[in-house]
Amino acid sequence: MITSRFPFSRVQWITSSFLIGTVVIAVTGVPAYIWFHGIDAFQVVLFNFYFWATGLSITLGYHRLFAHLSFKASWPVRIFVLLFGAAAFQNSVYDWVSDHRRHHKYVDADDDPYDISKGFLFAHIGWLLFKLKPKPPQDNVADLNRDPLVMWQHRWVQVIAVSVGLLLPCLIGFLYGGFVAALGAFLIAGVARTVVVQQMTFFINSFCHTIGKRPYSSRCSARDSNFMALFTFGEGYHNFHHEFQHDFRNGVKFWQWDPTKWMILILKRIGLADNLRRAPAEKILMAEMSEARRQIDASLKAWSGRLVDSCPEALHSVLDGLHETSHRLAEEYKELQDTVRQRIETSRDRIKAWRLEIRLALEELENLSKFDALYQTA
What we know:
Layout: H1 13-37, H2 41-67, E1 72-73, H3 75-86, H4 93-105, H5 120-129, H6 142-145, H7 148-206, H8 226-229, H9 238-243, H10 259-269, E2 273-274, H11 281-304, H12 313-341, H13 348-377
Antiparallel strand pairs: 1-2
């Protein structure tokens, strides 16, 4: 029988029941509530407060503050993110950080907890539903062992999660409008919000290792995606993050959507955060140069074995231009490397010129890909 081969012994029953049950309640209970009782501004405001409070507690708190130590925060911020991070129902910060640090150390390898090479669904949610191997030792969170607030949350995380994430919205709803409003708060700000925030976090493990570009490094599957950043509080710039994991920014460009970064800057401005860590602009530029050259050289190598004598002159011009660009990037990379090694300050105009060079090089590479498409169909 097919059912006899199902790995029931490896199912994480409590986690699976919660993840599946909350989705079922969200897609059935919320529409039913709105159908019978409608939805008012109170429910919308409460949902949005919980959405941002729990979402930022994961990205700003669990991720950038505790996992990567990319800034320091005062105790009011730490307590807030520990309470509302628990309310996101993603386990304690202690467990979350241990898994995430292991992900960075073993990315795309067997010891990566949410290894994308095991499949999209595995990275998205499967790793939570099944026990695929014995739980690894939590030997990478010694700093959190010394944090009394973190350890307090770890001991009481389930109580905090239910109290802050489900019961508190019910109480607020009851005080606002009685049992009907309490039910709506439970379903909308409680259950539905939990599902939305969890799926946004899961997107980072799945979509952000599948969709997007790799402008800083192709050493792992992590990708930058402007689109995914919109749904992950700015965490979609995942290629940058894997290359510069201790930077408090994920969207390093000023125009990139990264509300987590902006909130950290606001906290610094009002005196609740400090010691913001940034990767030096020169090192970021070196990574972009190196990766652009790698992509160009890989494309040139792919074309070197083709019979292109009968191809248009424009193609030969593009190939010659890319050869020159590759050599120029190599020289500029060495120049930039020397300035970093000698700790020479680089002017903004020079950095701007180098960034323009990289952008133009990638545009040349796109032109070659257009010829590649024509060549394949010819």
